[in-house]
């Protein structure tokens, strides 16, 4: 088991918490067509918050729960910084995404 899994699971919960605190956590899923986008971050069909909630978080939870290989890179923070430029209320979400990126790109020693 990858030693990062517990920390990554915690980080996903923190990302969800920040989305809820910002009031951008949706109760209704986007359409199946919107979720089927093949464009990075589904920018053609979803807002960034929707992508985080409906695509990123479920995929990462599935990877962790089934002990699949983790991605070797993550650029979520870079995208979030573009989306939330000049919006200081998203600082907590940016920190949570930054920590996620760091956990993905740095293997912990066992």
Question: What's the topology here?
Answer:
Elements: H1 5-21, H2 32-35, H3 48-65, H4 76-83, H5 91-105
Helix pairs in contact: 1-3, 1-5, 4-5
What this model shows, in words?
The chain has 110 residues and is an all-alpha fold. It has one domain. It contains five helices and no strands. α1 (5-21) runs antiparallel to α3, α1 packs antiparallel against α5 (91-105) and α4 runs antiparallel to α5. The longest helix is centred in the middle third of the chain and has 18 residues, at 48-65. The relative contact order is 0.20.
Q: What structural keywords apply?
A:
single chain; 110 residues; mainly alpha
Low-confidence stretches: none
Mean of pLDDT:
93
Structural class: mainly alpha
Figure out the total of helices. Answer: 5
The largest sheet, given as strand count, sense and whether it forms a barrel, is: none
Q: What is the helix fraction of residues, given as a range?
A: 55-70%
The multimeric state of the shown protein is single chain
Strand content: under 5%
Number of strands: 0
Total discrete domains: 1
Pfam families: DUF446
GO biological process, one term: single-species biofilm formation
InterPro entries: UCP006257, YqcC-like_dom, YqcC-like_sf
How is this structure best summarized?
The protein is an all-alpha fold and 110 residues long. The chain has 5 helices and no strands.
